[in-house]
TrEMBL record:
It comes from the Bacteria. Belongs to the asp23 family. Residues 31-41 have a biased composition (Basic and acidic residues). This is Asp23/Gls24 family envelope stress response protein.
Amino acid sequence: MSENATTTAPDATNDADPTASTGSTPSAGRELARRDTGGDRGRTSIADIVVAKIAGIAAREIDGVHDVGGTTERVVGKVREVLPGTTVSATQGINVEVGERQAAVDVSIVAEYGVAIHQLAAAIRRNVISAIEQMTGLEVTEVNVTVHDVNFGDEAEQSGSSRRVE
């Protein structure tokens, strides 16, 4: 192993920019996150998509989350639901940045009407952080929650059933 490889060991203090010591481009870290777990016995690599799926599932587990994703993502998700052989993406509405030891997550949701949004966001943060840290060992530095809409529950029924003018 070269001298450069030993200076970029996990105990290096360059957490702010994990690509600075390796000379790779910033986009290289977005493809695959690396986490040393076994010293000289090997290396574990965790793809960004894995962290995004964990975050998506954890966000959907919280009561009060009607849907995950912005308007465009939800429309694409609805189209995917009706196509045979496809499923809703677990990463819909989730964006992640994963480094060697840390991850940051952005979650976009539609909340149920009547739910305290600040409490909902806090519950999503707790669940996402817990799931990612337990399953990957990565430290979650932040979870940003964006609420795109509020669902009233009976919107679909009201839009077609009662009209003011006939």
